[in-house]
Amino acid sequence: MIRDLEYLPRPVRSSMMNWDEHRRRSTINRRLQLSRFVVALLGALALAACGGPAGDEPTETPDVPAADAMPTSAPSTPTPSPDSETAASRLTLMLPPLLGPAASAEDAAALGDLLGTAAEGPVAVETDTTSAQAFDALCRGGASAALLHPFSAVAAQAQGCGEPVYVLETDGVAYHSSQIVAPAGEVPGVANLPGRVMCRRSAADAAGWAVPVLALRAAGIDPFTMLAGIVDAGSDQAVLDALLDGTCEAGIVAGGAVDALEDPAAVDVVMMLPSLPDGVLLVSNDLEPGALRTLLTVLRDYRAEVAALAGADNLLAADGQDIAPLRELFETAGVDPALMAE
After folding, report:
1. What residues have CB less than 8 Å from 8, skipping those under 6 apart?
2. CATH tag for 178-272 (out of 3.40.190.10, 3.30.2130.30, 3.20.20.100, 2.40.110.20)
3. Using CA atoms, how far apart are residues 168 and 95, in angstroms rounded to an integer?
4. DSSP output for 120-135
5. Displacement of CA 202 from its chain's centroid (Å)
6. Could you tell me which CATH class the domain 5-53+90-173+276-341 is placed in?
7. pLDDT, tens digit, for every residue of 180-230?
8. Which residue, 340, 338, 33, is CA-closest to 159?
């Protein structure tokens, strides 16, 4: 269900057109797209565990524009380039393929034309890019809006590059949560995890491993040095089976997986973990008020088309706090989220 749209910088009232192209994607594709970010994060955490450089101090979170007000003053103007007049009048939307194959250049151009007609000015839509490139463009003034992996979105918000306005929804799901579990009565709390063998679904699982690693680090537990062992089980059910047969003493499963057990009371939830969206669409903090208003309007009116080109079913309005728990986790764990955007 679409959440209350009052959270957007401007009220959302218009209905959306329907597009059906590019809606086929899979959980496998999603995990493959996220895997390189997981590897980068785990490398950073391992470096920190060995005494490497810690993350930078977090910056203050910029204020999110109020629902009934727009910025009244434009930010400082960058040094003009020869084509600055054209660049200033053009909106650029970067939609890297987070959920599967990239949309074709023809479809991207068609969406750009559609949005440009509504905006009464040129709109460029780029799909042949990566989340890291989109992050760089957003923070360097080359993108008016960018779809980013959640880790890159945290970095962009922390650096004041942009603010979240939408998150992707696919098959009715916009967020993925995990939890650390253990056989009933065996692990009273997170502090009792060191020295235990832990099962996970896969190392290339952002919600099921990268986020738990951050959470454990934030709790003062280095999983690379303080766990007795880590077992890749392959699925939630396999993790739960391994807990119950004694193969593992703790495990990480999706939120709600325990409820599917014949006897849910046989497993305790040791720690709930922050949810992870598939993708976050941010708008640049450097847009002048008129351009920002225009961009928010076309995104609002054509969000079904934007979602379809990104491989999702819908865009859900973000309230500015959707990635706040994840950002807090990075800060508490002492990891610079910018490491995930490079």
Report:
1. 67, 165, 296, 300, 317
2. 3.40.190.10
3. 11
4. TS-EEEE-SS-HHHHH
5. 19
6. alpha beta
7. 999 999 999 999 999 999 999 999 888 999 999 999 999 999 999 999 999
8. 338
